[in-house]
Amino acid sequence: MGLLSDPNRRRALIGMLTRMPVDWLVRTMQARGLEVYTQRFSRKLPFPDEDKERYMVKGTNVYGILRAPRAPRTEALVLSAPCSPGNENNQAVGILLGLAQYFRSQIYWAKDIIFLVNEHDLIGMQAWLEGYHHTNTTGMDWSPLQGRGGSIQAALSLELSSDVVTSLDLVLEGLNGQLPNLDLANLFYAFCQKIGVLCTTQGKLPRNDWDTTSGYSHAVQTMMLMVLKQASSRPWGDHGLFLRYHIEAASIKGVNSFRPYKTDATTVGRLLEGMYRKLNNLLERLHQSYFFYLMPSLTRFVSIGYYMPAFGLLALILLLRALDLWVQLSSPPTRTTEDGVEVVPASPGVLSILTPLVISHLTGVALYTLPVLSQELAVEHFPVSETEAVVLTAIAIYTAGLALPHNTHRLLAGEGTEQGWKVLKLVAVLYLAVLLGCTALINFSLGFILALTLVPLAAFITPHVPKTLSAVVMVILSPGLTLLFAVFFFQELQETPVTLQEGWMLYLSVISQGILDHALYGSLLYPLAALLVYPCWLLFWNILFWK
Amino acid sequence: MAAPLALLLIVAVTIRAALFRTSLANLISERVEVVSPLNAWKRVVEGLALLDLDISPYSGDVFHETPMVIYLFHFLMDYAEITFMLADCLTAVALYLAVKDYNKQVFRKQKFALEADRIPMDCLELIRSPTEMYYIPLKVAMFYLLNPFTIVSCVAKCTCGCLIYGSALLSAIFLALATYQSIYPLTLCVPALLYLLQRLYIPVNVRRSSFWFYTLQYLFMFLGSLLVLICLSFFLLGSWDFLPAVYGFILSVPDLTPNIGLFWYFFAEMFDHFRLFFLCVFQINVFFYTLPLSIKLKEHPVFLIFMQIALIAIFKSYPTVGDLSLYMAFLPVWNHLYRFLRNIFLVSCVLLACSALFPVLWHLWIYAGSANSNFYYAITLLFSVAQILLVSDYFYAFLRREHHLTNGLYLKKKDGSEATLVLK
């Protein structure tokens, strides 16, 4: 009681304890001979997240530049460690400072090395990167950087929660599913092998029996984890934001599990020093190897030449369906009425096609803008927090869209014709094909998952299939429920299965993270799903209930 | 027909005004598919600033517009958005009136042919009824105004030229103006001449003296007005700087920024030794089709104009989507050819997919760094191929319709069985 009973004072105390020790960091870095600068930033969140509890996030980044002793200062490397509250990442800064001291005494550095400690994880990193490159894409407020180091060639981000590790996990997935060059992953893995440190990907231990069934299924599970992480379009480590600026970056997570063989901090330090010496020797940015790959393990990868044809075949289904509809439309069968007079069915008006299109897109726009805008209204009337309000509004608008076909047909005076739904389906199928193609080019996993669920739907939906069964199947294959299944599947793959209740809460938090990611870093999943994929799905829903 | 046109104009202006106010305007004016070094607004502003400082706007390879444009915008600087919206509206109205006029002519010709019993009976279904022709001018205007490409070009404040027809003298003057702006409308001189000859019922026969007389008259008017414009520019600017900066730039293609045309990739990878040769080949390609097409289409100059505009838009050195929208605006005029078009589905799918893929592959190349210029050029090539297919398809359909009009719709071989038509 006492100090901790008042929530405001409690928050202030926690804030004091968990705020970054800026002055101490500055003094320590300066003692190690680096040029130290700080950057203040602040960001107004669209809605307060569970972690942040406030609309305004303020912080300070601290970075020290180790100038290359003899080379011109045209290139730089970055070593970053996020400063998170609590025990999450409490060893990384220590290793960073130790490395800084060691690096300072070496003479072989040809590039400047920037040691960055960022606050609030990704928000701080975004502010620093924007300040470094003089861009302002996300509306963040930051103070300009006083010191710079030339164009950044590569970056590594450290996450260490204990001083002995059993394995190092390499995290590659970045914002919008962008991946660093495969050369960086190969470099790290090869060096780990040489030093004798166990290196894993997706947190799964590597196996040698890749030609047995269980070994194969383990590899598939690892790859599926990567696919799901890439499809979520979030940066899965601080490195994820570097990729957008054409800087190859990866995150290294130290994992301390119950294995007998432990690696101490000195070996981790030697590992990082070796990595930085390798990156120091680069004459050009890493670009020779693949940028598009999927990794079932660190020794094997699936390149774009293998996985794109699979997607191409799915898109082909849509194109063939479109061709089929076109041929049907250009040679309409004439109907004969009772007196034997041949009647050619009238071609549908533009309005009967345009109306579902416009209404679907307006619903998509509502799904995109209303949840964040109407959170205050929702909090007034319902006993929920802001985050829950946003997420539940989104789900409500999503389900409200299901009621649309029944209402639009009341609006339209005339009835739809046989030709009408065919034209609408042709437009919808072509729209879906182009949308999936563009998505797969930018973020293959997202495009493929959407294609897997939406293509069978698009191909088979007509007004003539049994309505209730197809309605159920359509709802199950809709983007929202695909996300729910993906959440459960993801937890299953990570060997931490969740109950229905927990899974549902996780699903809600995933939606809120998606909206937050879009507002903070420019992730494309939420606008894509709300503005383009959902209206496309609604068009097919309209076709199903066409009268 | 005035009321729907007015409504259309209001809708178009509203869309443009709304887009100007959003942040999309800045985004769109940066895109390479929409602006080219010839007609980017940023460069016009730069040229104006140089002019204000009493330096020649053509120094420094930034500005490549003609001097008339720069003096025009000197006065209209603050009203730039309204100027462009007005220009678009005027173009639409002009197209509307022009097509209405053309429709009247075609209908008249058709009536004469019917009365002269020159068309076999089974071709009646090919004849266009007055009702459908009534709506065509409106559709043309609609296509032009509501075409997203046009909106996008307007928002990007391009200074695309437009062709307006009127009497012989006026048409010569406007054609000279268009040629002065960029060299390629020179090829439109021939169809314009043919059109006017047709109106005056002068037969196109090399042996007739009246043909030569009129041709010389027209050419004289055209060259005269062109000369006047160039000399006027000289007096306005005070030097001959603009000749290499404008025409030299268009012809010698020094700027290789990627765009939706075919030049940039080729010339980026070409050795200097062969540069002149390939430059000649590529530039001749634009002008080359004029003569054969005019000989084939001498009875149908308006279709010839359409083909020429389309070919210019595809093969010119710095095309943008604005050029595309201009010739696409003419497509409703040839609605009646729809039943003879063979590839329309494929072409429209490819054009749609390419338009969506342009920004995606640009992003992957320039921002993400995962792709390279080959990907973007592949889409450019595909886009050009689709356009060429569209144009050739319309040409085939037109010729086929003409053939049917003279020879009957259901063709029979000599022994009475059904014949098929093959385009050689």
From TrEMBL, chain A:
Protein origin, superkingdom: Eukaryota
Gene3D superfamilies: Zn peptidases
Record carries keyword Membrane: yes
Keywords: Membrane, Transmembrane, Transmembrane helix
Pfam families listed in its UniProt record: Gaa1
Bilayer-spanning residue ranges: 304-323, 343-368, 428-461, 468-490, 524-546
GO CC field: GPI-anchor transamidase complex
Keyword DNA repair belongs to the record: no
One Gene Ontology term from the biological process aspect of the record: attachment of GPI anchor to protein
Name of the featured protein: Glycosylphosphatidylinositol anchor attachment 1
Source species of the chain: Gadus morhua (Atlantic cod)
TrEMBL record, chain B:
Superkingdom, taxonomy of origin: Eukaryota
Main location, first listed in the record: endoplasmic reticulum
A cellular-component GO term for this protein: GPI-anchor transamidase complex
Pathway(s): Glycolipid biosynthesis; glycosylphosphatidylinositol-anchor biosynthesis
Location in the cell: Endoplasmic reticulum membrane
Family membership: Belongs to the PIGU family.
Protein name per UniProt: Phosphatidylinositol glycan anchor biosynthesis class U protein
